[in-house]
């Protein structure tokens, strides 16, 4: 039964199934557990920071790691991907939270999960890998710039309630608030940032995120002993109420079930569930799904190269979809695979989804037992952490390299996608980028397709060609972009020619535009009393032409199996009785 379902549906849970089938022993379990603990330590502050950056309380990022992280690990198609909230989502989620509240954001997450599930079941995983490299670098670099800009508020301690509007509006608000810069927040953020940058050079095998946040928190605590030194923390900025009990910071409890639409909308009342809300969230949900799919599958490709594994893209989309459907019912926001956390796990020895499961359990244990301590983390320290994440996302080295060595068209795509991501939004940027990339691909393919008249009248495959026979060599695919360019030369055939041979051995495809063009050429040549031979066209393309009405007509249109065969047919047609022109 399982084999039958695997043939009809994506191999759900392919990652863990492949790991078990390969042989799983105590040694692998031990390395996976240690790797999972390492990744959990890294994911803990990142999840809180990304939730805050998305406009929701920090515990929602932790719930995402716990619920979606477990679901995707068990049901996804990668052995080593680690899923949770990622920085790429921030630019999409923050406007949704501002406009629809956290309830609306969670409804959009459920919708995105259903889209991902449909993509996986429809076996669309491979298509996501076709996103051109300049587009990927363009929108990730743009997202990095936007995230870094947003973090300046908490890093500098600026007196801004929130950052709304487009990028230029945010930049203007930050610039206007600079006179209110808070030195204490800047000091804590600067110390945290310095540790994050310098720690890798110490070669001490302790996650730099943990060390930096501990030191930043200690600086904030020590500074609190000095009069006038005050820094905003998670506990001072966020409150919670659970089962009639209230507190500050993060609730010390595991994720609990709640209908997503019962959480607060933009006015504080429950968001509710209505057709109008679903329709309004359709665009953001699609953007979340597409970004999640792209990031997760790109992460899986990178992870396969690092770990020597092989992922199932469709199973990964199914697992990701289920994870994003489940997480919002427990307070989780959108999740996808995170390249930084996945790479950390692989370097720590992760070789199966067990590591991702352990990482989620580590975060769960921290939520239950360390909530008061987590509440003491300064927002400026979390902002410093996201500044480093934004820098890594910006792919500055690859961005500059593309500008230096890539063809002009790729550079135009890169810069266009980058600017649109920063100034408008990622959805528009990727859509425009894909259109530009498609047009660029069409132009390059057209440039590769050409038709040449063989002069002098000889052919490398068959020697001398009779005087009244013209041979045209067509190279490349004949599609809507290239057909007219490749075939227009045939509208000016020498009147003294009796037979035209189209050597189509190098034609790989023919679309409807080319079929219509060939049909028109055959008709025009027939009217002029000139025969047409299509040489060595692939059988599947011959069948396509016949279905469209371009059939063999003795003495008029022939199909040659080889050039020698075509030449023999041409001699018979050229030396036979004079052919009367067809009806006008």
Please supply descriptive tags for the structure shown above.
2 domains, disordered C terminus, two-stranded antiparallel sheet, 24 helices, alpha/beta, 584 residues, Transcription Regulator spoIIAA
Protein described:
- The protein has two domains: 28-401, no CATH class; 450-575, Transcription Regulator spoIIAA (2-Layer Sandwich), CATH 3.30.750.
- The N and C termini lie far apart (65 Å).
- It is elongated, with a radius of gyration of 31 Å.
- The chain has helices at 2-8, 14-22, 26-53, 59-75, 90-121, 125-128, 133-156, 167-177, 183-198, 208-223, 234-237, 275-307, 313-326, 339-347, 354-369, 371-374, 379-394, 396-405, 408-423, 426-448, 483-487, 512-527, 539-547, 563-575; strands at 83-84, 239-242, 245-248, 336-337, 450-453, 458-459, 463-464, 469-475, 499-506, 531-535, 557-560.
- α3 (26-53) packs antiparallel against α14 (339-347) and α12 packs parallel to α14 (339-347).
- A hairpin with a 3-residue loop joins β6 and β7.
- It has 584 residues and is α/β, with parallel strands linked by helices.
